[in-house]
Recover the amino acids of this structure.
């Protein structure tokens, strides 16, 4: 029935979000849209301000929408703070390797650890304050 979840995150700066996910987490830019436009942009250019963008890595996709554009579409959210009361749980092939690759680049919320359900996972805060939890099957004898 359901085939994909693509969170649409309200952010103050879409370009900053795209660059964080691309440069730090290795996502690819898929498409973007300029403010007050419906023109689809297929090639990322940091000099082109965006109101909306999609980034993707494998089957994981995030959408970013500028705060102004988001509120124009959903004015009932105008008095709500930016952010979420959820974490985004992303399964990866090797959580330990990704954790080591992100050292010094990401804002860690929780270190790599073994969960009660047998996964290795860690969490980081992205450039807009959203929490991403990366989890995978254990690759070694971690405590």
């Amino acid at each position: 029935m359901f085939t994909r979840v693509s969170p649409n995150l309200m952010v103050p700066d879409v370009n900053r979000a795209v660059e964080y996910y691309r440069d730090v987490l290795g996502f690819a830019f898929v498409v973007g849209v300029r403010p007050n436009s419906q023109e689809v942009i297929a090639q990322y250019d940091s000099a082109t301000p965006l109101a909306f963008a999609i980034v993707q890595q494998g089957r994981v996709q995030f959408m970013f929408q500028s705060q102004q554009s988001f509120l124009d579409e959903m004015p009932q959210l105008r008095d709500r703070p930016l952010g979420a009361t959820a974490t985004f749980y992303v399964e990866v092939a090797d959580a330990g390797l990704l954790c080591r690759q992100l050292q010094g680049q990401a804002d860690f919320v929780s270190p790599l650890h073994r969960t009660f359900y047998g996964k290795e996972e860690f969490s980081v805060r992205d450039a807009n304050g959203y929490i991403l939890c990366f989890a995978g099957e254990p690759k070694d004898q971690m405590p």
Q: What stands out?
A: The chain is about 15% helix and 35% strand. Residues 87-136 form a domain with the Signal recognition particle alu RNA binding heterodimer, srp9/1 fold (CATH 3.30.720.110).
